[in-house]
Specification:
This protein is an all-alpha fold. It has two domains: 63 residues; 65 residues. It is built from two helices and no strands.
Length: 143
């Protein structure tokens, strides 16, 4: 015959233990998910970095070949040390200009990030200082 007695309901202590175990499993599952996401991010980043490195090597090789061609093209007009000197001066000037532009952009981007962080912290909009304002601290001026 079928027993119609209901199973005893869990006590309060058993319910709390089950709740704690479920919370523990949830935390462990979230940690595993974060670990998986970080692994995917690291894998994508490393693949991208490898492709960038290969591209840089190929571009550097192409630049060397191009500069060798320019030196050879200039050799009828200038002696060999002169043509190498001309190519070296133009290349170093272009490189120095790119480094200076990169430094300026990085400094300006840093000021924008600081202004954004301050505005987020204060809960209001704070504009980044205009380019070339001369402020080293990035704080807005009261005029």
């Amino acid at each position: 015959m079928l027993d119609l007695r209901s199973s005893p309901e869990p006590s309060l202590v058993e319910s709390i233990i089950r709740l704690i175990e479920a919370g523990h499993r949830l935390v462990l599952d979230r940690i595993d998910l974060i670990r998986y996401d970080l692994g995917q991010l690291a894998s994508r980043t490393l693949r991208g970095a490898a492709l960038i490195a290969i591209g840089v090597v190929l571009v550097a090789g192409a630049w060397c070949a191009l500069m060798t061609g320019v030196v050879l093209w200039l050799s009828p007009f200038l002696t060999l040390p002169g043509s190498v000197l001309v190519v070296s001066l133009f290349t170093s000037a272009a490189g120095a200009g790119m480094v200076a532009a990169g430094i300026r952009r990085a400094q300006y981007a840093g000021k924008e990030l600081v202004a954004e962080a301050v505005s987020d912290a204060l809960g209001k909009s704070v504009a980044a200082p205009p380019r070339g304002s001369g402020d080293n601290d990035g704080a807005p001026r009261d005029e």
